[in-house]
Design goal:
Keywords: Methyltransferase, S-adenosyl-L-methionine, Transferase. Pfam families: Dimerisation, Methyltransf_2. The structure is a single chain. The protein is an alpha/beta fold and 343 residues long. The chain is built from 16 helices and ten strands. Helix content is 43%, strand content 14%. Strands 6-5-4-7-8-10-9 form a seven-stranded mixed β-sheet. A three-stranded antiparallel β-sheet has the order 1-3-2. Helix 2 packs across helix 3, helix 5 crosses helix 8 and helix 9 packs across helix 10. The termini are far apart.
Length: 343
């Protein structure tokens, strides 16, 4: 008998990760993290929820085994990360966002779609409205943006802009508008526009009102692929939108270049898709369900960079940030041929 020369450890590890992910979503659905801010027994939680005490104990043990709970003397409590992101009483709660994103990108139908092909209507429209609730997504990402994305953006922007600069910004396809909201909070003389489609724009409008920033941020409704977006901006935030520009990529990058002041900057976050569409793994797998359904929405990094270059943009060099923030950081582009910050 010949013995295999390669280990199946990779596949067994994937199976284990799948089980742990199932436990995470079960914990969110059962809301067990809401009861575990402090040391609590399974008996106490069972009395409050009506859950079966025996099986609840087994379940909590499993959550402790995978590092989501701590256990001591038959008492359980959330780990610091679980308390921050999985307890609904936390201002940084992400349980709803994680659940929605899992439903939005889930691969439960992958076998059927591979066998039968995409939905003809989705394939023809190529817009995503049939698949995604963009309004709900905008609401849920309002907190997620604050868990790293906005911090990396602000720390990088601080290398280019003076704190007291009277900047005019545009958050293009801004979703919740949190990038713009946090920017104007950081730069007290800044003001600008959040541009979103009519079906989503109510979300940033509500959040701007909650922050009492109506005098500094206005909401523009429309289709930024085809409608005017304004001009004389010192900074345009384009987070994720160029990846989905499809046939309008060249027109959109040209429009953005024309909307900027001569010394303005573009802050770009993209999925950085390779030309062979196999990297980065997170983007390829994350958008697979929508692609199988019929959408064709991810632009390659080289296509995006070519469109930016053709529009007159060049990439800025930003000083390295710490590793945790660097991994979330987008890229700054300028039309200028000299270095320096926003004046």
């Amino acid at each position: 008998m010949e013995y295999p020369t390669h280990s199946p450890r990779k596949f067994l590890g994937m199976l284990q990760q799948y089980r742990e992910t199932q436990l995470l979503f079960a914990g969110i659905s059962l809301k067990v993290f809401d009861f575990l801010k402090h040391d609590t027994s399974a008996e106490k939680i069972a009395s409050l929820t009506g859950y079966d005490e025996r099986n609840l104990t087994l379940f909590l043990n499993s959550l402790a085994a995978i590092g989501l709970l701590e256990k001591s003397n038959h008492q359980y409590r959330n780990t610091p990360e679980a308390e921050l992101y999985l307890n609904q009483s936390s201002s940084s709660y992400l349980g709803g966002y994680l659940t929605f994103w899992n439903q939005m990108t889930g691969l439960d139908q992958v076998e059927e779609l591979v066998r039968l092909g995409p939905d003809p209507a989705i394939l023809k429209q190529n817009e995503g409205k049939e698949l995604f609730d963009f309004c709900k997504l905008a609401r849920l990402t309002a907190v997620e943006v604050r868990t790293g994305r906005v911090q990396s953006f602000l720390r990088a922007a601080a290398q280019l802009a003076e704190p007291a600069a009277p900047l005019r910004i545009l958050d293009l396809g801004g979703g919740s508008g949190m990038m713009a909201i946090e920017f104007v909070r950081q730069f007290p003389l800044a003001s600008g526009v959040i541009f979103e489609q009519p079906g989503v724009a109510d979300v940033p409008e509500e959040l701007v009102a909650e922050e009492h920033l109506e005098h500094r941020l206005t909401i523009m409704r429309g289709d930024f692929m085809t409608d005017p977006i304004g001009n004389n901006y010192d900074l345009i935030i384009a987070s994720g939108i160029l990846d989905f520009a499809s046939a309008n990529l060249k027109e959109l990058t040209t429009k953005m270049a024309q909307a900027l002041t001569p010394s303005g900057y573009l802050y770009l976050v993209s999925h950085k898709v390779s030309d062979d569409y196999i990297a980065p793994k997170k983007s390829i797998v994350g958008w697979l369900s929508s692609h199988l359904a019929g959408l064709d929405i991810l632009q390659t990094r080289s296509n995006i960079e070519l469109a930016l270059t053709s529009a007159g943009f060049r990439k800025m060099e930003i000083k390295p940030l710490d590793g945790a923030i660097q991994s979330l950081m987008g890229e700054f582009y300028t039309k200028r041929h000299i270095t320096g910050g926003i004046s």
